[in-house]
Amino acid sequence: MVNNNYDSKNIYFNNLSKSWDTTAGNNEARIKKLTEVLSWMHIKKGDTVLDAGCGTGILFPIIEDYIGSTGRLIAIDASSGMIEVAQSKYKHCNNITYIAAPLETIVMPLQSVNLIICFSVFPHIEDKLLALKKCHDLLADDGALYIFHLSDTKSLNEFHSHLHAPVSKDFMPYKDELEQLLLDAGFVMKHYIDEPELNFIHAVLQ
Fold this sequence. Notes:
Elements: H1 5-16, H2 20-23, H3 28-38, E1 48-52, H4 60-67, E2 72-77, H5 80-89, E3 96-100, E4 113-119, H6 128-138, E5 139-149, H7 153-161, H8 175-184, E6 187-195, E7 198-205
Parallel strand pairs: 1-2, 1-4, 2-3, 4-5
Antiparallel strand pairs: 5-7, 6-7
C-alpha cells in the first residue's frame, strides 16, 4: 500500500501547480541547463519516454524534439493539479498520455518504455524501492533510467528540511544507499555525478 503521506503532499503541490513555473524558476537559463542534461541521454526518434514526476511539463518540449511525432511521451505525476496545468500547456501535442498517480501505483504493459526520466521527483517518492522495481518492470531490455536534479544531494536535502511543508522530510539518498536500492530493484548504476547544481544518475537493467 502506498503511504498516505501522498495525501498531504498532493494538496501541497496542487496548491502550487498554477504558479509552479514561476516558483520553480523555469526560466530560459534553467531550460538551457535541462536541455544540456537531456543531451546526455540516449533518446531516439520513435522512443516511448516516461517522464515520472512531470510537474507542469518543463521537459516536454525537449523530449518531443528527440522522439518526434512517432514517439510517445507518458507524463506521470502524483499531483492532479500539476497534470492539469501540463495538459493545458501542451494540448497541441497528440502523443502525450497523462497519468495522475504515484509512480509506484501505475499499471502499464511490461517492457513498454525505452527511457524513464525522474527529474526533481525522487525524494518525494514514498516507497523508493517499489518505484524502482516498477521502473525495472516497465523498461525494455535495452532501456535506461535517469534520475537527476539541478542541485547536489546535500544542498537539495537541506533545502527540503528547511521547508515548512509536507515535503520537509523528503530526502534524496546518497550514493551508497541509492546504489543499493538500484541493485535491489534489478538495476546497475552506470554513471553518478554529485556536484554543485547537478545530481545525475544513469542506471540500466542488470
